[in-house]
Structure formats: structure tokens, C-alpha cells
Amino acid sequence: MKNIVLIISVLLLTGCSETSDNHAISNREHSIKYPAKTALTMSILDTLGPLREYKRSEYILYCKRDSYSERHIEGLLIQIEEAILRIKTLLEMDRLSKGVHLIMLDSREEMGRLFGHNYKGLSIRKDDLALFVYNSETRPYFRHELFHLMAYRVWGDSKTRLLNEGGAMYADNRCLSYENPIIVINKYLLETHKWFDFQDLVTDFQEKVSKNDLIAYFQSYTLHDA
């Protein structure tokens, strides 16, 4: 049984622009406001080099030319639309008041060069920006990071990461490429007495994350699944 936790842990934790005339904006997009690119967003785009821009009703997606993301663009656009719809349902939102900027990166190392840490995904709420790593070994965490951006629109600043991270885990509800696995993993963690005390998790989530971020994040999911 210990091997199961080890395998899960390893898998999870290893867990400029040119517009294209071929991707026209539909009529329903004209009413939404697109936030201006902040200095940070502009700096990242300039660093990445030649990009292709895909503008949709509630987001603008940036992919490097000839990248893995651009070669799989149709699937990415479908995933993003699905993620936004799911999060709207969870947060009981009719629509986004303004769009978001989404940037695709090739690798966790590229993320590390930009931010000093090899994240698989990153959301920067006050810049209306999220970045995602996508390659043959890493899926883009659209549901997770978009939840952070969209929840901020509804909730504002949260006093604890527990609510935000638990909501993002609940919105994603995937492990690697598997759908709906988290309740099974949590069942295993509970039955093997690996969960943190719930009161401790609520009162000091960050301290529990520092002890074992995998268990803290997965356990936070259960607060939204109750």
C-alpha cells in the first residue's frame, strides 16, 4: 500500500504576439471587456518570442509558433471552453465580466526560468493571467488555474488558501489523465490514517502544505465534496 502512495506522489509532483486571421471573433464576443495586458504579461510574451494569438469570447490564448500547444490547438480550445463552463456552474456565474489571458509553455523548466519554480500551472489573479505547461508528458491544468482566476472575481481575496485550493482541486477532479479519481485516492488516504486532523487543516492549511502538499491538497477537496 505504501507503494501506491509513492507512485501517486511521484506522478503528480513531476505532476510578441501575432494575431491569426483564421480565428475570427464571433458576434457574441463583442460585449465582453478584455483586460489590458499588464507589464508582467507583456514581459512574459516578449520573452517567449513569436506567438500565435487565439481570441475567444472570454479569453485570449497565446501559443508559441510551432510548439506542441499550437499543434494541438483544437483540443486545447475545447478543453478551455469545457473548463470555463464547469467553473461557472460551480461558482454559479452567468458570465465572466471580463476576459482572461492564458499563456501556454513548453515545459516546467520554461516555467522555472520565468518564475523560479517549476510549476505545472500558475495563476496571477490581479493580472488576469494564467500560465500552463503542456507537452506529451504534462496535461494543462485549465480547470485548476482558471478556478483561481474566476473564484477571485466572485469571492475577492480569500483569508485562507484552503478554500481556494480545495475549490480548484474539486473543479479539476483529475489525476494525470484520469477523470474523477480524487475521491478514490482520498478514501485510501483516510483508511490508511494519512489524513491530517481536519481542525488543524482548517486553522493552519499552509503549515500542513509544507509538511505534505499532496495530502493537504487532496484532503481540501473533501470540504467542497461534502
Topology:
Blueprint: H1 2-13, E1 17-19, H2 39-48, E2 51-55, E3 59-64, H3 68-71, H4 73-91, E4 100-105, H5 108-115, E5 121-124, E6 129-133, H6 142-155, H7 161-172, E7 174-175, E8 178-179, H8 182-191, H9 198-203, H10 205-211, H11 213-225
Parallel strand pairs: 1-2, 3-4, 4-6
Antiparallel strand pairs: 2-3, 5-6, 7-8
Helix pairs in contact: 4-6, 6-7, 7-11, 8-11, 10-11
Please describe what this structure looks like.
It is a single chain. This protein has 226 residues and is α/β, with parallel strands linked by helices. 51% of the residues lie in helices and 15% in strands. The chain has 11 helices and 8 strands. The protein has helices spanning 2-13, 39-48, 68-71, 73-91, 108-115, 142-155, 161-172, 182-191, 198-203, 205-211, 213-225; strands at 17-19, 51-55, 59-64, 100-105, 121-124, 129-133, 174-175, 178-179. The strands form 2 sheets. It has a 6-stranded mixed β-sheet. A two-stranded antiparallel sheet has the order 7-8. Residues 1-30 have low confidence and may be disordered.
Features:
two-stranded antiparallel sheet; globular; 11 helices; disordered N terminus; 226 residues; six-stranded mixed β-sheet; alpha/beta
